């Protein structure tokens, strides 16, 4: 006796088959558009072919449930053989050896099969991601061309050392103060380097000449101190652009507050909830002040070439790792010696040069719930000290013309952050 499908099961299968077809058509739409200059019939696959391939994957998965799982493996292998033959023939005629479309075809088959399982939603999301990646070829290639060979090599070297060395580093402390843990220190170095590289790469992509505010925003993600130094020097040579340059310095420094929130969220989410009011208050104040500074900005001001070091350079990473280890050790020593005052002292001293190290150190210390509030206050203190140092740098190097805007904004930011801390403590 033949089994009959229930109406509910029939509708579910029809929905999944329709989803599989839609996913294939979506990917096929992008492939067809990217090769629109070719006449129909002169390309391996178009919109309809992609839709049918995804549909084939769905039907094969459905069939394999009833017969044997090897059915889908044979279908995938047959499709791969067919694509390989077609690709070889096309490459022989055109000399084009790209296989992006061919890989997309195989992915489409798999997504069609996946749409027939309980992971249908995941298949839909993967299809959208695949389409986006396929459509960003010109952008991705343009980004890659912005990087120099030595920058790519630096990334590869640090990644190699991190991937190979990190798993074998001992995850325990080696000192009486429980401060020096090689595994944790190097993991935090990689984390900070990765965040910094996002900003460094963004500046490389947009180019320093595309706008001081954009340069300041992304450059601040890499190093707000370096951006402050570069823009302050430019202020000496372009006194008519003080408002614009001050806006770039402020936006770079303001990005530091958001960077701190990203770091603590990744390491200690409970700490982020305490830091959120003062950091957001200072960031919002900074962006509002930048908007005010830009009201009367001069037109046609040339953007500077901000000097940033590749954070993935091995020497830079090792230097930061050594400084981080020192801050971790100093924080523990002073905390045991003079208590809370020692933490505040370390935070202030660290803030003179860098905020990341003390942020990582205190985030690690905040593993103890009773230390959360103290760690948050220490991080805010380091951020305030670092902000004042950059304000002084802008005034001394750039002159009072740009310094008055920068220091004035920084003082307003600090006051706003202090008010947020008082409000939070009520």
Topology:
Layout: H1 7-34, H2 47-66, H3 70-94, H4 100-114, H5 120-135, H6 137-146, H7 149-165, H8 182-206, H9 212-237, H10 242-267, H11 269-293, H12 314-338, H13 340-351, H14 356-365, H15 372-398, H16 400-425
Helix pairs in contact: 1-2, 1-4, 1-5, 2-3, 2-4, 3-4, 4-5, 8-9, 8-12, 9-10, 9-15, 10-11, 10-14, 10-15, 10-16, 11-15, 11-16, 12-13, 12-14, 13-15, 14-15, 15-16
Key traits:
single chain, 0% strand, 426 residues, mainly alpha, 16 helices
Rg from C-alpha positions? Answer: 28 Å
Strand content: under 5%
Residue-averaged pLDDT: 80
- Say how many strands there are: 0
- Classify the secondary structure makeup into a structural class: mainly alpha
* Major pleated sheet: none
Q: State the low-pLDDT regions, or none.
A: none
> So what's the overall shape?
elongated
Order of helices and strands: HHHHHHHHHHHHHHHH
Number of helices in the DSSP assignment: 16
Determine the N-to-C terminus distance. 75 Å
Considering DSSP H and I runs of 4 or more, what fraction of the residues is helical?
Answer: over 70%
Tally the structural domains: 2
